[in-house]
Specification:
single chain, 339 residues, Phosphorylase Kinase, domain 1, Aminoglycoside 3'-phosphotransferase, Chain: A, domain 2, 2 domains, 5-stranded antiparallel β-sheet, 11 helices
Length: 339
């Protein structure tokens, strides 16, 4: 019996024990980019069939304690997150309420994007108001953290995937560009940061309500990160005329929350551009790593959009000219050759 089958059997037995029932049937669901496996199952509760989600999250590969801790933080803030019905953190098992199968990303169009993203910003505003003592207990998205993420680009996208090897001088030039991004990120007020807030991690529930998932990697980080993650989604590109009003709406919300900060439109745009750039550089490397290390090749199709974002934004800032030339003249042509 494979380790996965053994783990599934143990998960079933744990659930049967918790629900005092027999023969729980686990239906596998499509997973995410991590190592967790998800299942749907039904259990009779007070003579009603209730639907739940079971999670097999390997202890050595998943931050299960963080999931439980962050779930409580978000629930207390009024963010709509799944309820934890039961948890065995030593075994890596969780039982959650079921948010269904409707991912917001699958329902979006140019016509309804503003309506749904306005709702997503309401959830983000709730996170913004997280108590500073709770935020302080989260991992700090500091300079070292940011640079570790940026290094994924060179290691996995350039070298491993595209066989592009930078000279020492080129590495220094790229590092100088990265320092510009780091400076723009660390000068921002730090708040609760979901770290992967986009339309594939938001569920559309009954009555058009939104449910937030995949929050276990939350950190104490820059105030604009989750906004740019949502509006400049790695998986879908929205026209500027849809993004701009939402950006401005949230700038005003953040200004109200930090009255002592001078959040000019120019500063907000600069933070938005450079924080988004850091995220897309990291993401392009992660998509390559998912293919080579984790055998999840579907994410290769998402690399071109991240590179387009990088190309467009880096073109607007002279101090990022090396990054712009690298991506435009070497990286994008190399990716195109592989497709």
């Amino acid at each position: 019996m494979s380790l996965n089958n053994l783990s599934t059997r143990d998960l079933s037995q744990w659930l049967e024990s918790h629900f005092s029932t027999e023969n729980i049937s686990l239906l596998p669901l499509t997973g995410d980019a991590g190592f967790r496996r998800y299942f749907r199952f039904y259990s009779d509760s007070q003579h009603q069939k209730q639907c739940y989600i079971a999670v097999d999250a390997p202890v050595k590969l998943s931050n299960n304690q963080a999931f439980v801790d962050v779930q409580k933080i978000l629930q207390d803030l009024g963010v709509n997150v799944p309820n934890i019905i039961a948890a065995d953190l030593k075994a890596g098992f969780l039982c959650l309420s079921d948010f269904g199968d409707t991912v917001l990303a699958d329902q979006l169009s140019n016509e309804n994007m503003a309506q749904y993203y306005t709702k997503a910003l309401i959830e983000l505003n709730k996170m913004l108001k997280c108590n500073s003592a709770l935020v302080a207990g989260l991992p700090d998205y500091n300079e070292k953290f940011i640079l570790t993420e940026l290094a994924i680009f060179n290691e996995w996208l350039l070298e491993k995937h595209l066989k592009i090897y930078l000279t020492t001088d080129e590495k220094i030039a790229l590092s100088t560009c990265f320092d510009v991004l780091v400076s723009a990120i660390i000068e921002q007020p730090k708040v609760f940061m979901h770290r992967d807030y986009h339309s594939r991690n938001i569920m559309l529930l009954a009555n058009d309500k939104l449910g937030v998932i995949d929050f276990q990697d939350a950190v104490k980080g820059p105030v604009i990160y989750d906004l740019v993650s949502l509006l400049k989604d790695c998986y879908v590109r929205w026209p500027k005329q849809l993004i701009t009003p939402l950006m401005e709406d949230y700038r005003q919300q953040v200004q109200d929350h930090f009255p002592d900060e001078n959040l000019s439109k120019e500063k907000w745009q600069y933070w938005f551009d450079l924080t988004g750039l850091q995220r897309h550089i990291k993401a392009s490397g992660i998509f390559a790593r998912l293919h080579h290390r984790d055998k999840k090749s579907g994410y290769l199709a998402d690399i071109p959009l991240t590179l387009t974002y990088i190309q467009d934004v880096s073109a607007q800032y002279d101090k990022l000219s090396f990054l712009h030339e690298l991506v435009t003249k070497r990286v994008i042509p190399a990716v195109n050759k592989l497709t």
